[in-house]
Structure formats: structure tokens, C-alpha cells
Specification:
The structure is a homotetramer.
Chain A lengths: L2 H20 L1 H6 L2 E5 L4 E6 L5 E3 L4 E2 L1 H23 L5 H6 L4 E10 L7 E11 L3 E10 L4 E11 L1
Antiparallel strand pairs in A: 1-2, 2-6, 3-4, 5-8, 6-7, 7-8
Chain lengths: ~160, ~160, ~160, ~160
């Protein structure tokens, strides 16, 4: 493994650890990163009784869907912006994490959030020096698309 | 109090109870309705350690902000659509609640979510027979505007 | 050709004629429908000096991009909602055209609008009885993605 | 008049001239700046037969509305970002104009665009070093709100 690959492996592993273990609301939702590399980001959530919005039908709350899409787009944007930094050190790269944030988010709710677990996938639409724009899709465990989103992110 | 006013008081009290006590994710977030009448909707959230996104700065997670704005817009739209139903009975009106949902949502994150508690307020932009469009604003306890949103809601 | 196929051919031909010849602003922009069937909608615009936003670089004005994406999403939604009407007559189907409109639109500008001509393509995300949600993409003549959009449409 | 005020007057006059005379698509639409100062931006459009979308009802095309809201938000953002530049020279300030653009735009269509002329007004929601977020509202000549929008703008 080249030193550059080693570098990336270390960064992505640190991002995953931060995301899953150090962000309290991600922990509350039980978000897990299923895949995180330079090509693709996937975030998974198991439905739990606390995530329900409509108590009659037991479907996922719209706020949970928005949260999952936002963090998936954020991770996708973050990894893409890191790639643009080229040869910067791991430390320099990680310092940008603290100043990274969502500028705006659009969520389209397509179908009721029925299912036991859900996976959100992020795709890059644009990566500038400081701005990245992403599309996100949330599918349930039977492959139905539940919601999509578009997010704009800033790394100051 | 006229029978119509009594009717409204009963409906809004039922909506408030459902929102605060019967929607699991609203309970998890600790959302409270501060005001709910035909002129104005206000939803309040106390920050708690589990709502944090950025663990270094202790600020509100973007997903919490999106969730609060979505439910505030939803309540605003719902009350407005109910008004359009005119003389329908309480039961008829409440039956629409089960089939009510968000079509789409835009959230703009303006400032870091610093503060102990936050209040979201909703305003109606358009109310049709089935569609309502709302604007929402989230302020912290020192009066700073943290985020705004726009939502489109459907009552089938 | 079955009577149903004949029926569709007639409707789509009428939609194309209305779009290109009877909508004044579409004529001003010179919009042409490249493809319009039950699988796909493509709208084409030739750049002309009047469409320019940034006079230094000769790129497409953001308002032109928004307009093209809006009408592409609208056509996509309209065809999809027509399909949901099943066996209704051509006349009944066309009467819905007059009451059809955009509820909301999001546009993401990804790259400067350089090129001689541009093609927008629409995809359906959701079709209900009255509401349809679409995604749109605009590419230039060298295959670069210039902008994307998401639109919500209503047929009352 | 202080030299700083003189400076601003010169910049705003130059922005107005560029907007109205040098942007071809603004000229095609006949856009005029009604007000442009550090507190408020207003853009006006006279309806003309070419701006019509629905030929039966003679209402404004959704693409025209999107275009007017986009440029109004853009002007609002641009003036606000200029203010953040403090003591920079007129030339330095104007050089940023060439690299200024819309990142994303949301438009909500509230009522049919009936009227003889329309005015769009912009408000700042957030101004950073490079990013500004604005809200826009479009009213017709009888004071009805026709559409609203939210835009995110970048000055590289």
C-alpha cells in the first residue's frame, strides 16, 4: 500500500469513528456508515420505535429522513472536498472537519417510510474549493426509494 | 364561547396532544407546542446533550434543526388546511391528520445552533384545498435566527 | 396501432404543439421538444445572444436555465399524470393542461453555461393523483452537466 | 458627502448600469432596478406578451418568475458581500462581479402571475465572506404575493 493510500485509509477511518461515535445525535439515531470511500458513501439506519412519526402506520418520521439525508450528503461532500486538498497532511485535512457545515438542504418525500432498515447513498454533483453540492437517495430494505435530497455544503 | 369556537378549541387541543404525546420522534426530541391557534404556531425545543452535532462546539445537529422546522411547517399547514374545511365535524377534520404529510422541505442553515432552547415559528404562504406552503424560522434564546425553511404539505 | 396508442400519439402531438407554438415565453426562448413519450422528455435550447447572462464570458443566464428546467420538469410531470388518468378521453386529458402548474422548483447551478446548445432531460420521482415530483438535468453540447433541478407540480 | 459615500454611490450606479444595460437576458426581459442601496433591492418587470406562459389566462411564465427572483436575490447578495469588503477600492470590488454566481435557488409559486407589472424585493438572511443567502418576494401591481424564493450565492 502506498503512503498516499495509507493516508486515506487513516483519514476515512477517523471520519467514520467521529461520525458514529462522537456525534451525539448520530448515536441517538443509531446511524452507521456502511461504505465510505472515494467513490461512494452509504449510511444505514435501523428503524426503532423512537424514530416513528405516524404512530398509526409506524412509518419513519420526516425529521429522521431529513437528518439521514443531511449527514449522508455531508459525508459525501466532505470526502470530495478532502480529495481536492491533495497532499495536505492528515492533521490539516481533519482540521477542516470542525469548520464544515451544511448551507442548505432540500428533501423530497416520495413514499411513506415503511421498512425495518434504510440506506442513504450520496453522489457528488459539484466540488469547488470550498463548496460541494450533493444528491442523496434513501431506500428501504425492499428497494423502494423513500426520499431524495440535494445539499450544499461549505468547508471554510 | 360559540359552538364553533368550542369546536376549534377541541381540535387544537387534540392536535397538540397528538403532536407532543403520540408522535414518538417528537417525544424523543422533547418538542413542545408553545402556541397553536389560527394565527400562529410556535414549537419549542430544549437543547439536550443528545441533540448535539458538533461535539467540539456543542451546537445543535442539522438533522434536529430540519426536524423542528419540518414539524413546525407541518402544524402550520395542517391548521390552515383545517380552516379551509369549514363546517366539517371534529371527527372528519381529524381523519385528515392520518393522511397528511410533507411533500418537500428546504432548510437554510444560517448560524451555528448555539443556545439552551430554540423556538420555531411557522407562517402560511399559500393554502389550497389540498396543498399548503409555509415558511419557518428558528431562533435561539438570545433572539438570533439560526435557520429558516420552506415546506410544501399535502392533505390527501 | 391500437386505439389506445393512437390516442396517446394524438395527445403527445398536441402537447408538443402547445408547448412550442402557443406558449409565448417558450417561443421567445426558442425551446424545442426533442423527445416526448411515456419514457422520456427532452427539451432543447440553442444559445442565442439574448440568452446570455455574463457578457464577458458569454454564458447562459441563470434565469434561462431555471426556465428550461422548470418546463422540462413540467412536461415530465404532465405526461406522467396523464398516464394515471387511464381511459379518459383526449379532451378530458387536455382540459387538465389549463389547470396544471409548478408548485415549487429547486435549481442547482453546477458549471458555467458554456456551449452552443443545451438539452434538459426529466425523470419522474413520484406520481400521485394530483402531484408529481421530477428531477431534471441540463447538459451542454459537449456532455457537461450544467445544472440540475427538482420540481413539484400540481394538476388540480 | 463623504468619500466613502461617494465611493458607494459610484459602485451602485455601476452595478445598476451593468445589470440593466449589459446583461442581454435582463434586457430581453426588460428588467429595471427600482431601488438599489445598502438597505433594500427592488427589481421591476412590466408584463409583455412575450412573458406569458399560459396563453389562455395571460399569466406570467414560471421561467420569467424564476429569472426575476434569481437576479433580485443575486443583486441583494452582491451588495451585501460588497459591504463586507470594507475599504477595498471600487475596482477591486467590481472585479468580484465577474466571478459572482448563483449556487442554488428555490422558487415557490403561490398564485397565478396576473398583473401588468411586478416587483421583486430581496432580503439578506446570511452574509459570510464568500457566501450570501437571500429571500425574495414577488408582488403584482395589486399587492398580491405571486411567488417567493430563497437563493444561495457565491463570490469566489
Amino acid at each position: 500500500m502506498s503512503s498516499n493510500e495509507e493516508n486515506w485509509k487513516q483519514i476515512l477511518s477517523q471520519v467514520k469513528h467521529t461520525f458514529e461515535e462522537q456525534v451525539p445525535f448520530n448515536k441517538l439515531l443509531g446511524l452507521k456508515i456502511d461504505r465510505l470511500d472515494l467513490e461512494c458513501v452509504k449510511v444505514r439506519i435501523e428503524k426503532d420505535d423512537h424514530h416513528v412519526g405516524n404512530f398509526v402506520h409506524g412509518i419513519l418520521h420526516g425529521g429522521v429522513i431529513a437528518a439521514v439525508l443531511d449527514v449522508t450528503g455531508g459525508l459525501t461532500a466532505f470526502v470530495s472536498l478532502l480529495q481536492k486538498m491533495g497532499d495536505a497532511s492528515v492533521q490539516e485535512k481533519m482540521e477542516r472537519l470542525a469548520k464544515f457545515g451544511t448551507i442548505d438542504l432540500r428533501v423530497d418525500y416520495l413514499r411513506p417510510g415503511k421498512g425495518k432498515h434504510f440506506t442513504a447513498e450520496g453522489t457528488i454533483l459539484r466540488t469547488g474549493k470550498k463548496i460541494a453540492v450533493t444528491r442523496m437517495e434513501l431506500h428501504n430494505d425492499t428497494g423502494h426509494m423513500i426520499a431524495v435530497g440535494t445539499g450544499t455544503y461549505l468547508a471554510v
